[in-house]
Design brief:
There is one protein chain. The chain has 275 residues and is an alpha/beta fold. It has a single domain, classed as Spore Coat Polysaccharide Biosynthesis Protein SpsA, Chain A, CATH 3.90.550.10. It has helices spanning 35-45, 60-65, 70-76, 86-94, 108-114, 116-119, 142-152, 214-220, 232-240, 260-274; strands at residues 4-8, 29-30, 33-34, 50-55, 96-101, 125-128, 132-135, 157-163, 173-181, 184-192, 203-211, 245-249, 253-256. The strands form three sheets. The chain has a five-stranded mixed barrel with strand order 8-11-9-10-12. A two-stranded antiparallel ribbon has the order 2-3. Strand 2 and strand 3 (33-34) form a beta hairpin. Helix 5 (108-114) crosses helix 8 (214-220) and helix 5 packs across helix 9 (232-240). Bound molecules: 1-O-phosphono-alpha-D-glucopyranose. 1-O-phosphono-alpha-D-glucopyranose is lined by residues 108, 129, 132, 172-173, 192, 204-207, 231, 233, 258.
């Protein structure tokens, strides 16, 4: 059972300036729902009950979003508009939110290590990067699929992957390994954002992970890598060398909402399919 999901949410969202000057990028909405809420709903669908959010300066809107707004409740209660609050109320009832702040932006690995205070070293946990927005229609969500694999490989880390065009390898963590069953690879090597001619494959990690607690100990001694940042990919490589990392080709569709193009694509797609 995976009960906790970590959400690194301290990044600046530079690519969305000026929109992200006073609003966290995780709060940008696709239709009427902030990206982070989609992530939290996915974690709920996978059985998580604790949402552990690593925030930073200027991110208070996130905490307010997952809290009761008494003024709003009072204004809207008993009116025809009350149903607009249904979804967020349902989310808040079903889980607990915990927060810590990442004081310096030293990379995704560092953000995950900062989350140790919320996760502890007792159990495996999930990580969702909210700007990778996934849709599965009526089917099982990506994290739900991964939790089911984790139940069969409990002492393994799992990363979600998808095939990408070779000219984009320098935007992702790239994995290569041996196929052990349909859609599942035992990772032998992984590299953070390799140049297209140096990439060991075109299988890219997307923002869904299940990690074993041992990862914290490894992250604590992982040195800065690509871009001068502490990379989760580098820490995972140590476990991959012991055969303990699986890469899963998920079912569903993923949008890169960290880019304006992906964000617009997601918006159009959700408008067409969810309106
Ligand atoms: C991060 C990870 C990368 C992964 C990507 C998925 O990169 O470092 O390995 O492929 O998320 O979205 P970022 O997009 O934060 O630069």
């Amino acid at each position: 059972m995976i009960t906790k999901c970590l959400f690194p949410a301290a990044g600046y969202g530079t690519r969305f300036l000026p929109a992200t000057k006073a609003i966290p990028k995780e709060m940008l909405p696709v239709l009427t729902k902030p990206l982070l809420q989609y992530g939290v709903e996915e974690a709920l669908s996978a059985g998580c009950q604790v949402m552990a959010i690593v925030t930073g300066r200027g991110k208070r809107a996130i905490e307010d979003h997952f809290d009761i707004s008494y003024e709003l409740e009072q204004q809207i209660r008993g009116t025809s508009k009350e149903h607009y609050l249904d979804e967020i109320r349902a989310v808040m009832e079903r889980c607990t939110f915990t927060y810590t702040r990442q004081k310096q932006m030293l990379g995704l690995g560092h953000a995950i290590l900062t989350g140790e205070a919320l996760i502890g070293r007792e159990e495996s946990f999930a990580v969702i990067l909210a700007d990778d927005l996934c849709d599965n229609g009526e089917g099982k969500t990506v994290l739900h699929q991964m939790v089911q694999i984790h139940a069969r490989y409990p002492d393994h880390c799992i990363v979600a992957i998808e095939e990408i065009p070779r000219d984009q390898t320098d935007k992702y963590g790239i994995v290569a390994g041996e196929k052990i069953e349909e859609g599942l690879i035992r990772v032998e090597t992984m590299v953070e954002k390799p140049a297209p001619d140096e990439a060991p494959s075109t299988l890219a990690i997307i923002g869904r992970y299940i990690l074993v607690p041992k990862i914290f100990e490894i992250l604590a001694r992982t040195e800065a890598g690509r871009g001068g940042e502490i990379q989760i990919t580098d820490a995972l490589l140590e476990l991959a060398r012991q055969g303990r990392v699986l890469a899963y080709r998920f079912q569903g569709r993923r949008f890169d909402c960290g880019s304006v193009e992906g964000f617009v694509e997601a918006t159009n797609y959700f408008y067409r399919t969810r309106k």
